[in-house]
Amino acid sequence: MPTTKLILGQTLRFTGDPFAIGVEAAQHITHGAVVIRDGKIVDVGAADTLRTAYPQAEVTDMGAALLMAGFVDCHVHYPQTGIIASWGKRLIDWLNTYTFPEELRFNDAAYATEISELYCDLALTNGTTTAASYCTIHPQSVDAFFTAAQKRGMRMVGGKTCMDRNAPDGLRDTVQSAYDDSKALIDRWHGVDRLTYAITPRFSPTSTDDQLAALGGLWSERPDCLMQTHLSEQLEEIAWVRDLFPAAQDYLGTYEAHGLVREGAVMGHAIHLTPREIDRMAERGVSVGHCPTSNTFIGSGLCDVTGLHSRGIPVGLATDTGGGSSFSMLRTMAAAYEVGQLRGTAMHPAQLLYLATVGSAKALALHDKIGNLTAGNEADLIAIDLSSTRPIAQRSARAADIWEAVFPTIMMGDDRAIAGVWVGGAAVPRP
Ligand code: GUN
Ligand code: ZN
C-alpha cells in the first residue's frame, strides 16, 4: 500500500483564469490540506475534512505557509548559470561577449554535468519544479541536463540549441548535424521518465533557412515534441533579421516558412510584435514566454502580457537566466508586475501567481500534468513562507486578506521564502 501524505497549510489553486474572470478564479483555503499518494495529488480541501477522510495519512504541518503548485519557468538557459548578472551589454554584444564563450565550455561533458547539477539545485531552492531550458549545441549538454533532472525526478523540458551561422568556431553545427543530433536526442530522452524534448533553433539570426527547414521537418516527424526559440526581443535584432531574411514578411515569418509556427511552439520574449504576427500566433496556438527580468536587464522592452493573453495566446513566465537577472520566479513576478505598471496595467497577485504556474504549464502544453493543485496532477508543490524576512513579515502582518499577505513576498521575496518543495510527491531535502 503506497504511503498517503497529507500536507497542511494555506492552499491556493486556480479553478479558472484570473485574467478572464478575476480573483474568483483562485480558490484559497486558510486551513487547507493537500493529499498526495504515488506521486500524484489525490485531494485538496479543508484540513479538517481531509484529516477525517485520510486518517492513516502521514501528516506534515507547514503551519501558515502557502501551499501551491511548484513554479514553472518556461524559458531559461541553464548553461548561462555561471554568467548571470554580467554587466553592460545589449543583446547581440551580450551574446558575443559573455554567452558564447561560456557556452563553448559545454563541449566538456564534466563541466556540463557540474552546471546542470548546480542549475537544478538552484531551481529547486527557488521553488521551480519545472523549467524549459536551452542547452548548448553540444549533445552532451542535453545529456547532462536531462540526467540531472532525472536524478531529482523533475519534470523538465530541454533541447540542443542549433546554430549554423553567426556564432563562433566551436559553437556552430550544420544543417545535417543539427537534424541528426536533435533526432538522436529525441530518441534518447523524449518521454523518458518526466522529460520532454524541445527542438531548439536558437533564433533566426543563427540559423540558415536550410537549418530552420531541417528542424521544421524534424518537428513534423516528431510532432509531439515542443519547439522553443526567440522572437522579437530587441529592435536591433529585428533589424538584423530583416537584413538576413529579405524575403520574409516579418520575424515570425522566418519561422513560419519552415513549419515552426504552431501549437507546441514557445517563443521567448515576443516584445516588439506586428499586428500580423500577433494574429498569426493567436490563430496557430503559439505560446509566449514572458521574460521580464531579462527584458529590463538587457534593455529589450516591455512585453504586452495582458494584450497577448487577451488574444488567447498562452503566456507563461520565465527567468531567461542568464539574460534574466534572477533564478527566482518570485523576483520574476515582481518584474512582471513592474513591467505591467510601466505599460499601465497593474497585474493582480493572482494573475502573477497564475502566470508562474498554470500559465507556464499551458505555454508548455503540460497543464494536464503540472502547474496547479488539482487532483490527478503530479505532486510538484511548494510551501511559501509569507513572513520569510523582517521587511516582509512586518508588512504581511498587516494584511487583510491572502492577496495582501502574499504580495510582499512576490515583491520582496527570494529563495528564503521557499519553506518546502515536493517533486513527484517526495519532499526535496533542504539545502
Ligand atoms: N536570443 C538568442 N539567444 C539568446 C539568449 O541566449 N538569451 C537571450 N536573452 N536572448 C537570446
Ligand atoms: Zn532566451
Describe the protein in words.
The protein has 431 residues and is an alpha/beta fold. The protein has two domains: 4-70 and 372-427, Urease, subunit C, domain 1, CATH 2.30.40; 71-363, TIM Barrel. The chain contains 16 helices and 16 strands. The strands form two sheets. Strands 5, 6, 7, 8, 9, 10, 11, 12 and 13 form a nine-stranded parallel β-sheet that branches. Strands 3-2-1-4-14-15-16 form a seven-stranded mixed β-sheet. Strand 11 (265-269), helix 10 and strand 12 form a beta-alpha-beta unit. The chain is globular, with a radius of gyration of 21 Å. It starts with a strand and ends with a strand. The mean pLDDT is 98. Residues 75, 77, 230, 268, 320, 323 line the site of zinc ion.
Task: Describe what is shown at a glance.
This protein has 431 residues and is an alpha/beta fold. 39% of the residues lie in helices and 23% in strands.
Fold topology:
Elements: E1 4-14, H1 18-21, E2 26-37, E3 40-46, H2 47-53, E4 58-69, E5 71-77, H3 91-104, H4 109-125, E6 128-134, H5 139-151, E7 156-159, E8 161-162, H6 175-189, E9 195-201, H7 209-221, E10 226-231, H8 235-244, H9 251-256, E11 265-269, H10 275-284, E12 287-290, H11 292-297, H12 305-310, E13 315-317, H13 329-342, H14 349-363, E14 381-384, H15 390-396, H16 402-412, E15 418-423, E16 426-427
Parallel strand pairs: 1-4, 5-6, 6-7, 7-9, 8-9, 9-10, 10-11, 11-12, 12-13
Antiparallel strand pairs: 1-2, 2-3, 4-14, 14-15, 15-16
Helix pairs in contact: 4-5, 5-6, 6-7, 13-14, 13-16, 15-16
Zinc ion binds at residues 75, 77, 230, 268, 320, 323.
